[in-house]
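Thread: Newbie trying to understand structure tokens

Hi all, I'm a second-year student working on a class project, and my supervisor (Dr. K.) asked me to get a predicted structure for one chain before our next meeting. I've only ever worked with sequences, so writing a 3D structure as a token string is new to me. If someone could post the tokens and maybe explain what I'm looking at, I'd be very grateful. Here's the chain:
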Amino acid sequence: DIKSSLQEISATGISDAEIGAVIGAPQSIVTRLRNGVHKTTSWERGQAIVALAEKMRNAAKTAAISQSAA
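---
Reply by user tm_fold:
Sure, no problem. This is what the structure looks like when written as tokens:
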């Protein structure tokens, strides 16, 4: 879901402002969604958040594979 995706992204050290810049939303909206204050968002914004979380997961997997191969 949106909240868990944002928490996952935030755990990597990316700020809410940086997330907002990527998904096209103000930092305040990102913070409210991550904290559960807002429960819903537009479909497009939700898809962008989920896609960013997936991109971060894939980058972490790639980095782990590269390290184990070295």
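A couple of things are worth pointing out once you decode it. The chain has a mean pLDDT of 92. Helices lie at 2-10, 16-23, 27-35, 43-69. Feel free to ask follow-ups in this thread.
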